[in-house]
């Protein structure tokens, strides 16, 4: 079934649970607000290194997109996603992100000199360079140390270069390695973005529904509770479940998504989840159920 049909069925202006990172839909939970504050803090204070981590699908890339909308004109920004490779490859990623052309076959020394000249030229023009590295857990210890060495360009009172690393929890483990103690010492702030709790999941779903013209009550309290159980509070998984649930409900002519609809799509095996221990619900689930009914 075409998802545009459920928009008409429920009166939505667009799909409320698209998987594409979109800052227009950003739900400012306490955790997301704090993570964003850490990112802003890194930029405003020109911290050499700032780190934000979180599980897959918790909204890290959406936060980056929101941050990009607020970059001041005196910041020259480079965004790097999924960078991999050995020594020298990182510099090519960095220069490419900053739209600096590199001659074919240039050696490491030439690339570093080109990068340093660019940073100094930006500084002379009243700007400073910021690099955001998304999916930074893909960088090895050697590459992270290479990043730290790049910040040695900073000298005196002014910070010419700052680096923001965003990645999965493995990034924190990587930074804690003994061989990266110098790197860790240069990190100004670290924040880990946790999955949503049950109440936040309820508010998140209602927020996205209202954003597209819905009432925020298109899902029953029982359905929302079951979505939390199945998703573990991971926004991306919540989006998948809600999107498909709306398809199922509209195709059946239902005005509201009930728990039977969620059970049906889960039973049909449309959502793939990593293997793990079953989620144990806490007392907050009971309080949520009472508040949402």
From TrEMBL:
SMART domains: AAA (SM00382). GO terms for molecular function: ATP hydrolysis activity. Pfam families: AAA_22. SUPFAM superfamilies: P-loop containing nucleoside triphosphate hydrolases (SSF52540). Residues 46-194 form the AAA+ ATPase domain. InterPro entries: AAA+_ATPase, AAA_22, ExeA_AAA_ATPase_DNA-bind, P-loop_NTPase. This is Type II secretion system protein A. It comes from Rhodovulum marinum.
